[in-house]
Design goal:
single chain, alpha+beta, three-stranded antiparallel beta sheet, two-stranded antiparallel ribbon, 4 helices, 5 strands
Length: 143
Amino acid sequence: MSQTQNTVGVRYTGKRDSFMERAYKSGLSFIPGQVRCVPPDLAKKLLKHTDVFERVLEAVPIEPIPEPTDDTAALLDVAAQREAEQQEALSQLQDLRDQISHMDKEALAEFAKIHYRQDLNKRLSVEKLRDQVTGFVDQYGVP
């Protein structure tokens, strides 16, 4: 496995039998001695943890464990896609909350009935109705 110009070789030197990197949202898994060629910005972050990672100038496979093809790029793409999907879901949720904050009593009652099959008591204040509809969104999700 040789690193390309736009990647940095990083070896896992930690004590665990396997390690899943979650702090920087890469989703990469490592086994002791495993080398992955990662983008420079991720490498910089990982290499701050000198007790767990070390830089490798030329990535070489470790002897006892046959190293499969380097799937680092694919795993990073999956992590980036997952992050984008989460951001999109949060954006949709915020858009719906913004819409609810501008609805009047009639619109709130209609929205709750259509999307959540809930009847609202229109005698309550518009603020309380907004709280109820927002509660439906939190409980049941974006329709």
